[in-house]
Amino acid sequence: MKNNPTKGTLEVICGSMFSGKSEELIRRVKRASIAQQSTRTFKHHFDNRSSNDQVNSHDGSSIEAIAVDNAESMMKYINNSVEVVGIDEIQFFPKDIIPAVWDLVQSGKRVIAVGLDLDFRGLPFGIMPTLLALADHVTKLKAVCVKCTKDAHFSQRLVNGKPAKASDPVIVIGAQECYEARCRDCFSIDHGPIFTINK
After folding, report:
1. Sign of the torsion formed by the C-alpha atoms of 187, 60, 11 and 44
2. What is the DSSP secondary structure assignment for residue 124, as one 8-state letter?
3. Residue of 11, 23, 24, 89 with catalytic role
């Protein structure tokens, strides 16, 4: 009886801004390195808040990373010897990242994908619903609401100290200067109920 090659796994880490997603990615990749596994970490080139060659967390930890803007660019850096692939801010990538991630998992790699599950409007963010459905393991992290200190899983975008409009661009890169973690009660946006948005 012929043995099939061992498949890999897809781990998705999601949550709001300031929930520790990048910190958790860094922790997992560093543990893999300690275990003498070959790792490669990527970030989207949109995320230029600090360094183009590192993933940085809000707690100050960091790890080397390669900035790319699509799956084709990323795959050029992954050879057969790479065992663990980390991808930060995966919600920024176009849809071509999904079959690329699938192929990596099928070829035996451990893929750790990190991203915002909800955009600033509180709606599912881009490719994240598909990745969450395909994942072997999902970790949903929560931040602390800056208004009431309850668990927060929304990313409140602010413009001049006031909630952004639902019609504003979905992608605006920023940190504490324009985003806050908010709980459901403290989150504010000017669209109607979510179930009417995509009719």
Report:
1. positive
2. B
3. 89
Decide: residue 181, CB within 10 A, 0-12 exposed, 13-18 middle, 19+ buried.
buried
Considering only residues 59 and 17, tell me which one the structure prediction assigns the higher pLDDT: 17
Which helix (H) or strand (E) segment is 134 a member of?
helix 128-134
pTM of the model: 0.89
11 is catalytic: no
- Token pair of 180 as six digits: 């806050």
Q: How far apart are CA 118 and CA 125, in angstroms?
A: 5
Asked whether 127 and 91 are in contact (CB, 8 A), the reply is yes
pLDDT at residue 1 in the model: 45
**Which CATH number is 9-142 given?**
3.40.50.300
Q: Are 46 and 173 in contact (CB under 8 A)?
A: yes
Domain boundaries, the chain: 9-142
Rounded CA separation 121/194 (Å): 9
How far is the C-alpha of 110 from the C-alpha of 113, rounded, in Å? 10
